[in-house]
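ZP: hey, is the D-ribose complex queued? I don't see it on the tracker
AM: it wasn't, my bad. submitting now with these inputs:
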Amino acid sequence: MNKTKKIAIGSDHGGFELKNEVINYLQEIGWIYKDFGAYDTKPTHYPDYALRVGKAVIDGEYQCGILICGTGIGMSIAANKIKGIRASLCHDTFSAQMAKEHNDANVLTMGGRVIGKGLAREIVRVWLMAKFSQESRHIIRLQKVVDIYEPC
Ligand code: RB5
């Protein structure tokens, strides 16, 4: 594992508890991270944290991000509005592996009300270890995604 990568992590109130578990895991395995909030379970707004984490990744100080809300859906929708962010909602390890190998996902999203702590740890482990395949078909497809702009 390339532990020189720095991880930006954030949640809303719905993902707060699971985020703390993921932070515990990152500390255990020795990855560098920064917690961009929320810092308690007071109701808050997930797009604010998606923007903070997404910008931190795009600015380059952090090479990848983890965003957790109640379902992971809002974080995924919001983060994918940021140019250059490829956020993937993963609630199983196969998706986590593919999100990196095929989609070069630079942000992982999960739902704190959907999965348990053990599975979340395993998803994070697999996602951090996986690498983009660099296969030309996936490079072409990712470029096609970049090329999409208001087609309707
Ligand atoms: C907050 O109640 C909840 O809507 C939020 O955490 C998230 O699940 C949105 O997608």
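AM: back. Strands lie at 6-11, 32-35, 64-69, 87-89, 107-111.
ZP: great, adding it to the tracker
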